Amino acid sequence: MVNSLEIAPSILGGDHAALGESVAAIGAAGLKWVHVDVMDGHFVPNLSFGPGVVKALKARFPDMFYDVHLMLDNPNLYVEPFAKAGADLISVHVEPDYPISGTLDDIHFAGRKIGITLNPQTPVGEVAEYLPRVDLVLVMSVQPGFGGQSFNPVALEKISALARMREEMKLSFRIEVDGGITAGNVAACIGRGADTIVAGTEFFKNSAALLGAARGAARNL
Fold it and tell me: How many angstroms separate the CA atoms of 35 and 147, rounded?
């Protein structure tokens, strides 16, 4: 199944002193998805946003879709706070040691869309058992933790593999890619099967070129 293209700018790449203005810029570009990178300083070596940030942004911009990516050692403890704060989709990683299946259930029962995420070194097979249950698979094309890193082309093979698995299993989950996305490589991601594109630095510095390249690639499918 081919899903419509969504661009999900990451507010991690925006002005942290003016997050509302970053979301306003996303809306002004005609986009609906806002990607929120949540970091705990343990699973990744950085700290970022908590549920309060999502709650404040949801209150100010209620029509935006909040795509919350939990880069946490214990995401199971934070599903409820982020769901209550207004997250529309919550993605969790397969790498940490926590009850993954039960956490996906928690996201479902909270009424939110479910995402599963894999890091660059993690084989696609690690998410295979969860594919029938999720709405989105997030492929990291950088090691998570910091913005501004260069794109790792290993992500392209993972996107292709997931697209094949989606077709063979007759599923409809979205394939999202995040990390080092630019106007120069976004078409390759879309051509392999990605339908949800996260871009932080590139969106806030070069949005016209990024959106033009992404939309052009989607039209050519």
Answer: 13
